[in-house]
Amino acid sequence: MGLTRRDILVGGASLCAGVGLSTLSSASEAESDLQPLRVAHLTDIHLRPGKLPEESLARALHSAQELGADLIVNGGDVIFDALNTDRSQVERQWKTLHRLLKAESSTPWLHVVGNHDILGWSTPKREPGTKLETLGQLELSKSFYSVERGGWKIVVLDSIEYAPQRSSGYLARLGWEQLEWFERELRQNELPVCVFSHIPILSACAYFDGPNEEGDNWSVPGEWMHLDARAVKDLLRGHPQVKLCLSGHIHLVDNLQYHGVSYFCNGAVCGNYWQGSLQGFPPALALVELYPDGRFRNRLVFY
Ligand SMILES: [Zn+2]
């Protein structure tokens, strides 16, 4: 399916959540004099073998390329599920993914690790080491890292901390080693920064992912939003070059502003696990434009 400008604008307008123009005073002005780095954010693909998911992902990849993406970011949960699925089926999911990415995309990728990408962590046989297998599938030597592209520093965080005390097997937390690394990365950097994490650092839509107000108090599980959000937002306050933090995981869409940072939760490529929309949000990817002077724009695209 070819994408028109209207597909993007209608999408952004109808959801009122896809556009982050707070630091972009005039889109047309910016478009005329500076070329942005275009990043397609495809989060929560949840690919499994089958006609609908495979054709849909191919369409999303074609859309990203038609929109001029210089880079595609897999935002995590790229395969349907490994947390609670036997190894042979998980291997089929990875094979399907590798075949499709090779056939349908020539754009460079960055990969973010998602909870569903890790084998067995929600089963009693969980072992911390299976995260290394995920890194192998994604050809990553480390689960958190940074790159410089188009005058920006892009930081990829690993949200998924091993937590055998939880039935899920994980909690949304960076841990000390990664937090210290993140702090060093920011201290040594003067470029504008865009951060990707699978699980939102800060989120409004996480409140609506389940009956979280039961019991007369709002309650958001530690698997749904970063438990160390307080430490991370304190760190970001000291580094105004951090402009935006992008995530997925919830399959819903929001945009928050907090202490000068824009937080976007960018929906899901699979929508409601390949069964249409979830709470009014259809399957989507996001087009993120990063201008070399630090301005940016985040728009949802209903591919
Ligand atoms: Zn997830």
Give an overview of the whole structure.
- There is one protein chain.
- The protein contains 7 helices and 13 strands.
- The chain has helices at 5-15, 27-33, 51-66, 87-104, 130-137, 175-187, 229-237, and strands at residues 37-42, 71-74, 109-111, 145-149, 152-156, 160-162, 170-172, 193-196, 242-247, 253-258, 261-266, 285-290, 296-301.
- 27% of the residues lie in helices and 21% in strands.
- A 6-stranded mixed sheet has the order 4-5-8-9-11-10, covered by helices on one side.
- It has 303 residues and is α/β, with parallel strands linked by helices.
- It has one domain (5-301): Metallo-dependent phosphatases (Purple Acid Phosphatase, chain A, domain 2).
- Strand 10 and strand 11 (261-266) form a beta hairpin.
- Bound molecules: zinc ion (ZN).
- Zinc ion (ZN) is lined by residues 77, 114-116, 198, 249.
What's the level 1 CATH class?
A: Alpha Beta
Number of domains: 1
Could you state the CATH homologous superfamily? Metallo-dependent phosphatases
Per DSSP, the total helix count is 7
Distance between the termini: 8 Å
User: Strand order across the biggest sheet?
Assistant: 4-5-8-9-11-10
Instruction: Return Rg in Å.
Output: 18 Å
Assigned CATH architecture: 4-Layer Sandwich
* Total count of strands: 13
Helix and strand content put the structural class at alpha/beta
Describe the main β-sheet briefly.
6 strands, mixed
Proportion in helices: 25-40%
- Report the uncertain regions: 1-30
Question: Which hetero compounds are present in the coordinates?
Answer: zinc ion
Mean pLDDT: 91
